[in-house]
Amino acid sequence: MEVKFCSSCGAGMETREVDGTLRRACTKCSFVHWGNYSIGVGALVVKEDKMLLVRRAQDPGKGYWTNPGGYIEQLEPIEETIVREVREECGVESTIKGIVALRDQPRSIHNLYVAFEMDYVGGEPTPDGVEVDAAGFFGMEEMEAMNVAPFTKWLVDVALRGKSDGLTVDGNPIVPLNGYGLFRA
């Protein structure tokens, strides 16, 4: 779908070269439509060598077992998003250890997916009954008999067989940068 009107001032848009690429740009102000993007997050919560999985009750992925996750809200810090998604989907409390994987899907809506290794804090996995119809902690052998989504199989391998702490939250950056979510190796 082509953007026809500026979301900043409402004027008409035109196609012109911006930074070497044809983009939709406003005819009146400096607004440039850079593209359509979405950012998803996923939680890799391990308890006693078992991975927290949820079974999707809706499409996309209805009937598949996946790790809990979702999409960030416009003004929500990503580290709050992932904790919220785990709590909402299955009632488990968790905290972030670090970022351990990224998936890049360039499509008409370019999707970036950030996978977080999470510490289990508490709660029994209980499906929300809307997005998720089953939830629990499962070992590798149990997962072999389950309908686990292919991407989730890869993430389980990252979580259970990974050899890195990934990117961790920088709680004390050398320069205060309020409003930034900072992660470092």
TrEMBL record:
It comes from the Bacteria. Signal peptide: none annotated. GO terms for molecular function: hydrolase activity; metal ion binding. It comes from Cohnella cholangitidis. Keywords: Hydrolase, Metal-binding, Transcription, Zinc. InterPro entries: DNA-dir_RNA_pol-M_15_CS, NUDIX_hydrolase-like_dom_sf, NUDIX_hydrolase_CS, NUDIX_hydrolase_dom, Nudix_N. Residues 36-161 form the Nudix hydrolase domain. This is NUDIX hydrolase. The lineage of its organism: Bacteria, Bacillati, Bacillota, Bacilli, Bacillales. Belongs to the archaeal RpoM/eukaryotic RPA12/RPB9/RPC11 RNA polymerase family. The keyword Lipoprotein does not apply. Pfam families: NUDIX, Zn_ribbon_Nudix.
